[in-house]
Amino acid sequence: MKSDMVAILARKRAELDELERSTTTPGYQRLLQEIQELFSGDVEPWLADWLMRPSLGLGAVPLVIAAQPNGVEELIDQLQRVVSGTTR
Q1: How far apart are CA 67 and CA 71, in angstroms?
Q2: Nearest-5° Cα angle at 29, 26 to 33
């Protein structure tokens, strides 16, 4: 396997490890609760995917923002804007 592929896989594994760690935090639980109020069905797979993808509206990967002070509030605000159709 080429070294660049090894580096990509290592980065993805680290991102998944960070996502897994985040699921045990109160911030993640709050974010999940808020999203369940906005959307129906099993939202956790969607949330996991969303947290890992760069967001144009946020200018960063939501998982990174969630770890910052007031990051969860910023993510909730962004999701509410998306649902309501408003922008910043």
Answers
A1: 6
A2: 140
Does the pTM surpass 0.70? The reply is yes
Q: Identify the three-state secondary structure at position 59.
A: coil
Q: Cα(22)–Cα(28) distance, rounded to whole angstroms?
A: 6
Distances in Å between the alpha carbon of 55 and those of 4, 6, 40, 64, 69? 25, 25, 22, 11, 18
Cα–Cα–Cα angle for 7, 9, 12, nearest 5°?
110
Q: What is the pLDDT of residues 4-46, one digit of tens each?
A: 999 999 999 999 999 999 999 999 999 999 989 888 889 999 9
User: Where are any strands of DSSP class E within the chain?
Assistant: none
What pLDDT digit, counting tens, does each position of 55-74 carry? 888 899 999 999 999 999 99
Q: Judge whether 46 and 39 are in contact, CB under 8 Å.
A: yes
- Quick one: tokens of 6? 């090894």
